[in-house]
Specification:
Elements (H helix, E strand, L loop, with lengths): L13 H25 L5 H30 L10 H31 L5 E2 L3 E2 L8 H36 L13
Antiparallel strand pairs: 1-2
Length: 183
């Protein structure tokens, strides 16, 4: 059965939709800045970008907490009918995404702390060091931040591909449930 427009009860809440798209924007931005800044020579521009990257990471972590609390306290719409393997894949992907929403910024924070570079959120709020300064620990955490970020990026692409498949091939209304409402 094809749906052209999901019912209001089939949609996510406005808060869930807002958090979803805000996090999507921040994730793409933080990942892009992280890729760009990594190969820059030491300069004021590189330091500025590292701070922006850290601010985005702390913001993503904060939004992940809000998003998880919202999700736990508000039932999502009923699942769209699909083959069991697709439903399992979607649930696994969402679980891994949520885990990485926390893991990537926490490992980045631990790396920054171990390297001796404190995080001052938006240049105003100094955050406590996550771990003590330890150069060996910093060197072991640095690649893990990258591995986890790349894993998150791959999962985001899979998530997007699945949503587009449902929209353009299955035409089942799944994507519309997460789009801002049009009057």
């Amino acid at each position: 059965m094809m749906k052209t427009q999901p019912l209001a009860s089939d949609r996510y809440t406005g808060t869930a939709i807002g958090l979803h798209w805000l996090m999507a924007l921040l994730l793409v931005t933080a990942f892009s800045v992280g890729l760009y800044m990594a190969d820059l020579p030491f300069s004021p521009q590189r330091l500025k970008l590292y701070n922006w990257h850290k601010w985005a990471g702390v913001t993503i972590l904060s939004l992940a907490v809000l998003r998880l609390l919202w999700r736990l306290s508000h039932r999502p719409p009923a699942d769209i009918p699909m083959p069991a393997w697709q439903a399992r894949a979607a649930h696994l992907t969402h679980s891994l995404l949520y885990g990485l929403f926390f893991a990537v910024p926490l490992v980045g924070w631990a790396y920054s702390s171990a390297a001796g570079f404190p995080i001052v959120w938006f240049g105003v709020l100094p955050l406590p060091d996550f771990v003590p300064v330890d150069k060996a620990l910093a060197e072991s955490l640095k690649p893990w931040h990258g591995y986890l970020a790349w894993t998150l990026a791959v999962l985001v692409v899979l998530h997007l591909a699945g949503a587009l498949k449902h929209h353009f091939i299955d035409r089942d209304g799944l994507l519309r449930r997460m789009l801002p409402h049009r009057a």
